[in-house]
Amino acid sequence: MPTRTHHREDLVTLQPSDPNWWRQAVFYQIYPRSFADSDADGIGDLPGVTSRLPYLADLGVDCVWLSPFYPSALADGGYDVADYRDVDPRLGTLDDFDRMVAEADRLGLKVMVDIVPNHTSSDHAWFREALRSAPGSTARARYVFRDGRGPDGSLPPTDWISCFGGPAWTRLPDGQWYLHLFAPEQPDLNWDHPEVRADFLTTLRFWSDRGVAGFRVDVAHGLAKDLAEPLRDLGDIRGYDPDELPEDGSHPLWDRDEVHGIFREWREVMNGYDPPRIAVAEAWVRNSRRTPYASPDELGQAFNFDFLYAPLSAPALHTAIDSALHDARTAGASATWVLSNHDVIRHATRLALPDELGRAGREEWLLADGREPEADAGLGLRRARAATLLMLALPGSSYLYQGEELGLPEVAELPRDSLQDPTWERSGGRIKGRDGCRVPLPWTRSGPSFGFGEGGSWLPQPEYFGELSAEAQAGVAGSTLELYREALRLRRALGGDEGVEWVGSVEELSAGVLHFRRSTGWHGLSNLSAVPVPLPEGLEVVLASGPLDGGLVGAWTTVWLR
User: Fold this and answer.
1) In angstroms, rounded to a whole number, what is the distance separating the alpha carbons of residues 64 and 105?
2) If the chain, 562 residues long, is cut into consecutive pieces of 10 residues, what is the mean pLDDT of each piece?
3) Was domain 125-179 assigned CATH 3.10.20.30?
4) What fold, for 498-561?
């Protein structure tokens, strides 16, 4: 890959430490364009991140996870990468990155970065070379180019559909087609090509040498593809839903067994550092096939989104928690928990909507600009705080998304002309997209963009953001920000191993009470019903997500006890 390597002699390196630090760490995801803007251009940047690292250290997180900050045309919010070993000039420089890592190290924080290996940007030097080269050339072999079907090759090579809607193939003027399982500006790499494999190992070393603690691997289940001729049509079963994927790894595009050889190579590189660099897979696969991604000889951890998508009911979450803990033990990893991220409706809003709405109904709600049905913001925040305190009581790694500690809702009312998510255009206006959870953060009650930056914000912020800002909540007893701060402090102090012991009867579970004990003796109890329930006798409340009424745990409330 013809990119610069930027050698430096004074790179920050992580000091040797506990190689298992990540197993019960708290990670904080930053979407850099929306976190903090230092140069008044309306776009968040790395110096802005650095300026706010003391806030994150005070919050109590262990590691900062940066979504892509690489050079990009932003066809997909930065996940179209033009250079894997540089910083987008709008977001800073490599020197800015090094200063950020150094400041994080000074504050006791680690840094994890996104890596996007399934596809590059169409602006990437390799793809530009491929466009200049003839069919059958070495340059095209790094990607997936094919002749079309039909007498004149005018039909796509297969019926494959992009994850963003529309065909997964785009035709060039010379008649060949190239594969893009996401936007046309994101051509898929051919991971059978040795140059592709070797170059990503170089990229892992490049960022590890600069002090990065690990990597979040985008679309980890998509790298290996069956590209043997003739390519297979998929028919009615596209296989983009994990439950549609075959259990034997035979889908031509997703979760093929060959992908694990790639990640075993990555693990050899990551284990060459002290401490070993960590990784977590974004792998949308069946639960039964997630284990290899998280095994110690591959990435070491994998996201389990069952907890995120489960309804806020005690029986459903009991099942999701048990399953996640079992799968993590089987893999030799620790469980992962997440409630919000850059791809989903913020959980303070999801939990403000009727449970029966479902994912499809929530998409319709977004299209209606959040007006139908009307979200119950107060109930949503109460339920979100209960869900968060439940998550933070569980053993394993918790992944927080920027702004959830402020109780930020989804901004559903974004005007159409401000939308930038490619799903909006690619779906023909049927899916509004993910911009509503990417609106820049409010830091102050007032001022330009509520303290995000002096030059406004690249997505419009609603007026009510001021009263949800960090300034408005800091030091305010009972605020969501202070709840997170206290929960993260207590989580570290109370400790415990990587298991739970369930407490209570089947009848209590059915009534909405989820109750478990950690190995050091403290308890998490969630009342996930609309009816108050008694506190257990003989235990002291150390933290509650909502007000308590005498000896009762209120509706939609989680308490920690010891």
Assistant:
1) 11
2) 39 63 98 98 98 98 98 96 98 98 98 98 98 97 98 96 92 98 97 98 98 98 97 79 89 96 98 97 94 97 94 97 96 97 97 91 95 96 98 98 98 95 88 96 96 97 98 98 98 97 94 98 98 96 94 97 98
3) no
4) Immunoglobulin-like (2.60.40)
Pairing, β 63-66 against β 110-115? parallel
Q: Which of 282, 298, 363, 405 is catalytic?
A: 282
Residue 336: helix, strand or coil by DSSP? strand
Secondary structure of 485-504 in HEC code, one letter for each residue:
HHHHHHHHHHCCCCCCEECC
Alpha helices, H only, 279-313: 291-294, 306-309
Q: For 83-111, how does the pLDDT look when each residue is reduced to its tens digit (9 = 90+)? A: 999 999 999 999 999 999 999 999 999 99
What is the pLDDT, as a whole number, of residue 1? 42
Q: Could you give the percent of the chain with pLDDT greater than 90?
A: 91
CATH architecture of 26-119+193-489: Alpha-Beta Barrel (3.20)
The model's pTM: 0.95
- Residue matched to tokens 């994101």: 186
Token code pair at residue 136: 């059958």
Q: Which two tokens stand for residue 151?
A: 């007498």
Tell me if residue 282 is catalytic: yes
Summarize pLDDT for 327-356 with one digit per residue, the tens. Answer: 999 999 999 999 999 999 999 999 999 989
- Residue tagged active-site, from 218, 255, 298, 327: 218
Q: How many CB atoms lie under 10 A from the CB of residue 316?
A: 17
Single-letter amino acid, residue 27? F
Q: Would you state the pLDDT for residue 121? A: 98
Element (H, E) at 557: strand 557-561
Residue 130 tokens read as: 């491929």
Contact by Cβ (8 Å): 342, 67? yes
**498-561 matches 26-119+193-489 in CATH topology:** no
Residue 219 CB neighbour total at 10 angstroms: 20
Give the Cα separation of 80 and 74 in Å (integer). 6
The answer to whether residue 218 is catalytic is yes
Element of type H or E holding 533: strand 533-534
Domain extent listing, the chain: 26-119+193-489, 125-179, 498-561
pLDDT tens digits for 29-72?
999 999 999 999 999 999 999 999 999 999 999 999 999 999 99
